Amino acid sequence: MRHLLDTQHLSRGEALEILDVAEDMADTQRREVKKLPTLRGKTVVNLFFEDSTRTRISFEAAAKRLSADVINFSAKGSSVSKGESLQDTAQTLQAMGADAVVIRHGASGAPRTLATSGWITAGVVNAGDGTHEHPTQALLDAFTIRKRLFGDDSRGRDLSGIRVTIVGDVLHSRVARSNVWLLHALGAHVTLVAPPTLVPQDVSGWPVEVDYDLDHAIAAGPDALMMLRIQLERMNAAYFPTEREYSRRYGLDARRLAALPTDSIVLHPGPMNRGLEISAEAADSPRSTVLEQVTNGVSVRMAVLYLLLAGERPHTEKEDLR
Ligand code: NCD
């Protein structure tokens, strides 16, 4: 794998390879000594032009567990705030010898620009670009769903026949977009639930069903319910009357939680707006995978960095990771 820019162009085979290597990585993370020597001598740069806590820390932990050197670069307090361009920033990183660049940027398409510009030779990982994609989030979500529903050793299995319902601010969500493509590639059936104002215009071209009624979608018995954050910072208009009204119609409260099938799970990428899209009961219930998603995120990002920087998956990968 040269870059990871999106899930839209990921095949079922490529996706399963990442998930399966992530299983191997997760196994290593249960040991007392979590650090592997695999990427010793490699440099990973975290290039964050947008705020982030968990994604940046997760990539940092993943790179360090593989013994790579990590350089954290955030736009605040850097020359970017003095108007330095993406090109100049990228060329500076290249001159410092970056082997991989993990980029989060407010502009959709910035990671692709970086990967195809010729400014750098490093592999590029998209850590969220505008409202476009957030591929490692979708991969860790799929990993979490697979592990919860099929158990610890589910290597090689896709999500055929699994029903996933994604609820909320789909319009502004790169997490929703990446999940739709990845879940589709893995054979899952995807339903989107949102008020009409928060459904994207081009949704008719997506491999999904759309439902405007959350109670109806829950009655259909999804295996996994993914709640999205209401992205108030990306809203330049009134997309719903009041937060209270949104919550009443589209929030996951105790009543809706109880109406879900017994074995179904609840995901949220974080950060959560407790009391808005998800109630405390739902967020803290045993069905909630929120913290597992965070843990799994490190394993999935280890897998991505490994596949990017250490080449193809070796046949004896188990040996290799020891
Ligand atoms: C997501 C993001 O930044 O797109 N968060 C994350 O990566 N953990 C989702 C969000 O901000 O709502």
Describe the protein in words.
The protein is an alpha/beta fold and 322 residues long. The chain folds into 2 domains: 3-134 and 294-309, Rossmann fold; 136-292, Rossmann fold. Helices cover 38% and strands 14% of the residues. The protein has 12 helices and 9 strands. The strands form 2 sheets. A 5-stranded parallel β-sheet has the order 7-6-5-8-9. The protein has a 4-stranded parallel β-sheet with strand order 2-1-3-4, with helices on both faces. Residues 313-320 have low confidence and may be disordered. Residues 54-55, 128, 134, 137, 174-175, 229, 231, 269-270 line the site of N-carbamoyl-L-aspartate (NCD).
CATH homologous superfamily designation of the largest domain: Aspartate/ornithine carbamoyltransferase
Rg calc = 19 Å
Count of helices?
12
CATH topology of the largest domain: Rossmann fold
Main beta sheet, described? Answer: 5 strands, parallel
Mean of all residue-level pLDDT scores: 93
Order of helices and strands: HEHEHEHEHEHEEHEHHEHHH
Approximate strand percentage: 5-15%
The CATH class designation of the largest domain is Alpha Beta
Q: Which architecture of the largest domain per CATH?
A: 3-Layer(aba) Sandwich
Q: What distance lies between the first and last C-alpha atoms, to the nearest angstrom?
A: 22 Å
